[in-house]
Design brief:
Layout (H helix, E strand, L loop, with lengths): L6 H7 L4 H6 L1 H8 L19 E3 L6 E3 L1 H19 L1 H7 L4 H8 L8 H9 L6 H19 L3 H7 L6 H9 L6 H15 L1
Antiparallel strand pairs: 1-2
């Protein structure tokens, strides 16, 4: 597996803000001082509130994929409630029926890109930035947990090979929120 190190990743290692490195100081100041959307607008931030059980992680805790998925669905339902279904339908590639389904808390089949578009409809960062930050978080987590894509593929319930996991992490193939929850659960469990 080839992991591409982005310039802003080097900034993290050097102790500088990755946001300042990647987007300039205005973006870093905006997010640091709370000018963002009032709801938590990042999928990887759901981990902190997720349910864990005693398990194989180095800290003795296992992050549950179902708990992460429930957190993603709650995050998206809050985003639809905040922005309104009409605005979300207009700002995303989703049809009105799908937006209502997301508002009801069923988003497991949405792709990460579609989920990011829903979050962006609230006025937060653009969807591409949200997806890029999520991918950075996942790759940095893999590095911290010392995981490769084959190990992740073997540990998840989704029917993905190591190569398919790599393609989804790099954005060359679509990843559903259900798959994201499973992959993130493995990464976060092994980081602890």
């Amino acid at each position: 597996m080839v992991i591409r190190i982005m310039p802003w990743t080097r900034a993290i290692v050097a102790g500088r803000s990755w946001q300042a490195e990647r987007f300039g100081h205005a973006a870093a100041d905006r997010s640091r001082f709370g000018a963002r959307c009032p709801i938590s607008d990042m999928f990887h931030e759901v981990v902190e509130g997720s349910e864990s059980t005693d398990g194989a992680g180095s800290g003795g805790e296992t992050i549950e994929a179902a708990s992460l998925l429930a957190g993603f669905e709650t995050l998206l339902a809050e985003a639809v409630a905040d922005a309104g279904p009409d605005r979300v339908t207009a700002a995303t590639p989703l049809d009105a029926e799908t937006v209502v389904t997301v508002a009801d808390g069923d988003a497991a089949g949405l792709t990460v890109t579609e989920g990011a578009a829903v979050l962006a409809a609230t006025g937060s960062d653009d969807p591409e930035t949200l997806v890029a930050e999520l991918r950075d978080h996942l790759l940095m987590g893999m590095t911290t947990a010392v995981l490769d894509v084959d190990t992740i593929a073997a540990a998840i319930d989704a029917d993905l090979t190591g190569q398919e996991v790599q393609q989804t992490l790099e954005g060359r193939a679509a990843m559903t929120l259900g798959q994201l929850a499973e992959i993130m659960a493995v990464i976060e469990t092994n980081k602890r």
